[in-house]
Amino acid sequence: SHMTQATAFEDPRIEGSQVTPPAPRKVEMRRDPVLGFGFVAGSEKPVVVRSVTPGGPSEGKLIPGDQIIMINDEHVSTAPRERVIDLVRNMPSYIYICCATTHNPEIPKSQVCLIIKISIFKAGPLHMREFSESSTPGI
């Protein structure tokens, strides 16, 4: 005897293509007199963070592959790389960047992992920092 059973079929290809992009986040950084803001921008549109300088102001705030959406109050998601760089260079001390972490096909995951491993290696051993109540972590 045969049993009849109905099942609902969901195509996993459709489900995977409907991934919600990550929510944008806003980060604040203070310019370092030597390292600047401590990140390198790529040439894509929107401009993407290529690398983060170990020990720099953007370490722990930006990650390779982050899309830069806004700098201060200016939308830059369709701006050319030169405009983004000009905005960053012309910020005297503080900058606010709105960015979103996405998988960038230009930067393979293996390369991102390598960049992170190199950053950790170059950073050396972790040191505890003292924070007063008036200090802001990460700045």
TrEMBL record:
Instruction: Write down the superkingdom of origin.
Output: Eukaryota
All copies of domain PDZ, residue ranges: 26-97
Q: Where is the segment annotated Disordered?
A: 1-25
Q: Which Pfam families match?
A: PDZ (PF00595)
Protein name, entry field: PDZ domain-containing protein
